[in-house]
Specification:
mainly alpha; 15 helices; two-stranded parallel ribbon; elongated; single chain; three-stranded parallel beta sheet
Length: 342
């Protein structure tokens, strides 16, 4: 189980090699025997790969299971790899369930899915489930660096970090983006052209915007937005970048380091940035929505001591703070009771 491109089918093929290696079953296949080489080349007849997304009918499943009873042709085990298994119909799952309950000793089933919630509980209960976690951006960047070094392709760390974040946990997506970046940059993965390809221009200058927000300079903030707008950036990507910078400031502040913003201001701005994900699609233009986020952060920024002069305060506050004039009171004259009438 795992997100797309995280390595589910690749790990399944590795397991198939572990099961059918001449030294196996083993956790370290030799990669030199005929079984290992055939699986690596994709011509091992006892590894049956099925794309469940294109074979959802129960007839397809029954046809697949007709040959389960026969012994493997050249390997130790016959391995069925069913990719995107959650796409099977309910009737197909019912047809598969009987074989999963009592599989022949020479058969192994490897099921891969991105959505295990759609797999019936009766099937899940008969399987060992392994969850593949999304790879963090720094690990993806490290892997890309190792691959590019072997290929003698020049690269910059900031460019690989940008690709790692854009891949969102998928190593396959990262490799695809790296291929595109190589073609886009003529074989030199520099930060600026890669960011342009990914549509995340302006990310490098976000610290300047954060500092302008901390200073309360609306003019500097709007000038920054105007300059970034000239390269047609991904405005939602910039919101994500603001969140990352605010997160870094929050961590530094929690560790006792001095930051441009007070801890409560950092938290408030982070909440405003999170809300912007809902607000930006509703704005007339993405740029206007981003500008409103910046202006909102400025509007809710606490005033610094001495920032507003005494005579600039609202009259209600000035009146409340002014000393009240003494109030003159008069003592009422005593009232004489009327005499009784005879």
């Amino acid at each position: 189980v795992g997100t797309r491109g995280v390595g589910k089918t690749s790990i399944a093929r590795i397991l198939a090699r572990c099961l059918n290696c001449q030294d196996g079953p083993t956790v370290t296949p030799c990669m030199s025997c005929s079984a290992c080489q055939s699986i690596e080349a994709g011509r091992f007849v006892d590894l049956i790969e099925v794309d469940a997304a294109s074979r959802t009918k129960v007839e397809d499943t029954r046809e697949l299971l007709e040959n389960v009873q026969y012994a493997p042709s050249e390997g130790r085990f016959k391995v069925y790899l069913i990719d995107e298994v959650h796409m099977l119909s309910s009737h197909s799952f019912n047809a598969l369930l009987k074989t999963l309950e009592e599989p022949p000793p020479h058969v192994k089933f490897l099921l891969a899915t991105t959505d295990p919630e759609k797999v019936p509980v009766t099937v899940l209960s008969r399987c060992l489930q392994f969850r593949l976690r999304d790879l963090p951006a720094d690990r993806i960047a490290e892997h890309l660096a190792a691959v590019l070094d072997k290929e003698n392709i020049q690269h910059e760390a900031d460019a690989l970090n940008a690709i790692g974040r854009a891949a969102r946990g998928s190593i396959r997506d990262a490799m695809t983006l790296a291929d595109q970046a190589i073609a886009f940059t003529d074989g030199h993965l520099a930060a600026e052209p890669v960011q342009s390809m990914l549509g995340i221009q302006g990310q490098d200058s976000l610290p300047q915007l954060i500092q302008s927000l901390a200073d309360g300079s609306a003019e500097a903030c709007l000038d920054w937005v105007k300059q970034v707008a000239e390269v047609e950036p991904d405005w939602l990507g910039l919101v994500e970048g603001i969140q990352r910078h605010l997160h870094d400031l929050a961590v530094k502040s929690a560790l006792g380091e001095t930051t441009a913003m007070a801890p409560e201001v950092i938290q408030l701005n982070y909440s405003l940035a999170t809300q912007a994900y809902q607000d930006l699609p509703l704005a007339p233009e993405p740029r206007l929505g981003f500008e409103m986020l910046v202006l909102r952060m400025l509007a809710f920024r606490p005033a610094k001591v001495g920032e507003y002069p005494e005579d600039a305060r609202p009259k209600t506050e000035a009146a409340a703070a002014a000393p009240s004039a003494p109030v003159t009171t008069t003592t009422p004259e005593p009232v004489t009771a009327p005499e009784p009438v005879a």
